[in-house]
Amino acid sequence: MNGFLYGVALQWKLDLRSRTMLITCYAVPLLFFAVMGGIFTSVMPESRETLIQSMTVFAVTMGALIGLPPSLVETYRSDVKNAYQANGVPLSLGLALINSSAFVHLLIMSGILYAAAPVLFDAKLPEHPGIYFSGLVVLIAVSLSAASVVGLAVKDTANTSMISILLFLPSTMLSGIMFPKEMLPKAFVIAGKFFPAAWGYEWMTAPGFSWRTLCPLLGIFLAACIVCGILLKRIRTR
Amino acid sequence: MTNALEVRGLRKSYGEKAVLKGIDLSVGRGDIFALLGVNGAGKTTALSCIEGLRKYDGGTISVNGRIGIQLQSAALPAHIKGAEAVELFARWNRKTADHSMLAALDTGSIAGKRYQEMSTGQKRRLHLALALICDPDIVFLDEPTAGLDVEGRISLHRYIRELKARGKTIVLATHDMAEVESLCDSIAILRDGRIAFAGTVIELTEKIGKHYNIQIRTDQGTETYGTGDIVASLTAILKSYQEKNAVIQDIRVDRGSLEQHFLKIAKGE
After folding, report:
1. For A9-18, A107-116, B194-203, which range has the lowest pLDDT when averaged over its residues?
2. In the predicted model, is pLDDT for residue A80 greater than 70?
3. Total of domains in chain A
4. Is the CB of residue B83 less than 8 Å away from at least one CB of chain A?
5. Same domain, B162 and B227
6. Do B20 and B117 fall into the same domain?
7. Of B205, B221, B245, which residue constitutes the final position of a domain?
8. Which of A17, A29, A179, B17 maximizes the CB count within 10 A of its CB?
9. A87 contacts B91? CB cut-off 8 A
């Protein structure tokens, strides 16, 4: 196993040892799924059609926006960064490892939801699994890139938590997973379009591939990557 | 044979403030060298430039060999275990860890311990082990014994001597004069961004001038005398005690402490 794969595997284990990732990637999304899955399907039986997608978007958004930034702050706003630099490890490698590990966690969590929802709540499996899974992969990548900006830009964990929640709440509330977007005021619908969750949900529930959903996600991803590059450069020269 | 390290006219400023004003250093292969100076003298800046962690404004730095760096302000993720950290950094450096050196550092005792559970001494040893993974020719140690208890310092000094015995060149930044005296082959003292002294510890004491303290305890009390000529002074002092009919119970002679010599140069006294 080369250094990168070993690093990803080790980071994955470290995430499990750290309660933050365990809670935000697994415990809370599963609890939310257990409670809200029951409520949604009892109050609106038609929600079974999109229960897997909505719960997955919630889990991915939470795991990325709230789970990832503290790991980045721990690495880049502390003396851990010095250990990397002193031992010839590029700073970008830490970012890549943490993101790759988080990607695997979120994929596992999404798999759990995909398998459990039909059994527990008689949820309907996505009609187009290819569209669903490609949307899932893109959503995870874009959400992690946006979360990386927060983790690299913010200086301490207290501020990170606040900013993460400020992004997480509108991201989920305006994405259409809680209630149909048609019920929201137009301004809220427009605001929702700035977050990956809305586009990811639209992609995963669509009957086919559409550039209309890919382009905004790609835009957010590229913008986040550029900002991360600038932030890493600043951290390196600080 | 070329030196392990050659620095010529190294300059570095932070904005308007010149921190290094053209320093020259030479460190021989296999030597233990210490860079000394009071706080703010520019030690850390000089070392960071030499280590390649900081850009410098002018001068030349020639490092002849692979380097390993142990920073004073370095940490690892709280939940990583000692063995995992060693394995991770070894793989990143595409090296197989030198287990005989790791054994000398007693990393086995911290292999299964999480970083957050390690004592300061154990963390230092782990960071030293990480610095040695790439089998460096020159090892930079920044305040290696700061915050360690006596036992920790003694064992770390043993590891440093072990490194020297293996032919490594050691560059230390330290405040600990006892450490310097017991470990170092050569030293340099930085003062106000310039090298105020470079040489051996013995040369340092000679530069300041020979100075001895003579302490004599008699049945009439204890007296201390300072002198540069120990034979003449001691003869005269003993004669005067003989004339006073004092019974000499103990005589102690020591060189002035290295701290005193260091401060004289470092503060320009």
Report:
1. B194-203
2. yes
3. 1
4. no
5. no
6. yes
7. B205
8. A29
9. no
Residues B26 and B117 in one domain: yes
Whether residue B124 is found in the same domain as residue B11: yes
Closest CB to B94 among A3, A17, A79? A3
Collect all residues of chain B within an 8 Å Cβ-Cβ radius of residue A13.
84
How many domains, in total, are found in chain B?
2
- Interface residue B181 vs chain A (CB under 8 A): no
Find the CATH number of the domain harbouring B84: 3.40.50.300
B127 shares a domain with B44: yes
Judge: B75–A80 Cβ closer than 8 Å, yes or no.
yes
What is d(CA B260, CA B211) in angstroms, rounded to the nearest whole number? 11
Structural domain for A227, as ranges: 3-237
Q: B36-91: per-residue pLDDT in tens?
A: 888 888 888 899 899 888 889 999 999 998 888 888 788 899 999 988 998 888 88
Does the distance separating the beta carbons of B77 and A86 come in below 8 Å? Answer: no
Domain-terminating residue out of B205, B226, B252: B205
Q: Does A179 touch chain B (CB under 8 A)?
A: no
Q: Residue B220: which domain range?
A: 208-266
Mean pLDDT of chain A: 90
| In the predicted structure, residue A181 carries a pLDDT above the cut 80 | no
pLDDT at B1: 60
Measure the CA–CA gap between B80 and A150, rounded to whole angstroms: 24
Q: What is this model's ipTM?
A: 0.81
Nearest CA in chain B to A71: B77
Edge-to-edge strand ranges of the sheet holding B17-27:
B17-27, B5-14, B58-63
b/e burial code for range A95-106 (CB count within 10 A of at least 16 → b): bebbbbbbbbbb
- The encoded tokens of residue B114 equal 């999480």
Q: What average pLDDT score do residues B114-134 get?
A: 88
Tell me: do B30 and B96 sit in the same domain. Answer: yes
Residues 6+ apart with CB under 8 A from A167: A65, A146, A150, A195
Nearest C-alpha neighbor of A18 from the set A91, A105, A113: A105
Sheet with B248-255: strands ordered across? B221-227, B212-218, B248-255
Q: CB A80 to CB B131 under 8 A? A: no
User: How confident is the model at residue B257, as a pLDDT?
Assistant: 66
Q: Does A238 touch chain B (CB under 8 A)?
A: no
In chain A, residues with a C-beta closer than 8 Å to the C-beta of B114 are: 17
Q: Which residue of B has its CA nearest to A9?
A: B88
Nearest to B88 among A10, A17, A80 (CB): A10
